[in-house]
Amino acid sequence: MAVCAVCQKEAIHGNKLSITRSHISKRSPRTWKPNLRTVKAIVNGQTKTIHVCAKCLKNGKVKRAV
To answer: Where are the beta strands (DSSP E) in the chain?
Structure first.
């Protein structure tokens, strides 16, 4: 499973509740996955392909290769 190379964000697991929430005992498992992007970035002076979440890209935590 892919993980963000900057913030170590990964998939989390929990329960999906029913739409009405009136019968709260109706639960089913689900997974929330991070919004990962595969980008070419400069890591330790070299160009590498890494998985980075969209939030880290937006905040400028990654120096993209030209």
So the answer is: 12-17, 27-32, 36-43, 46-53
Q: So where are the chain's domains?
A: 12-58
pLDDT value of residue 66: 84
46 in helix, strand or coil? strand
pLDDT, one tens digit per residue, over 50-61 is 999 999 999 999
CA distances from 34 to 7, 10, 14, 22, 44 (A): 11, 6, 14, 29, 25
Contact (Cβ atoms closer than 8 angstroms) between residue 16 and residue 63 = no
Q: Which of 14, 56, 13, 62 is nearest to 35 (CA)?
A: 56
∠ CA 12-56-47, nearest 5°, is: 110
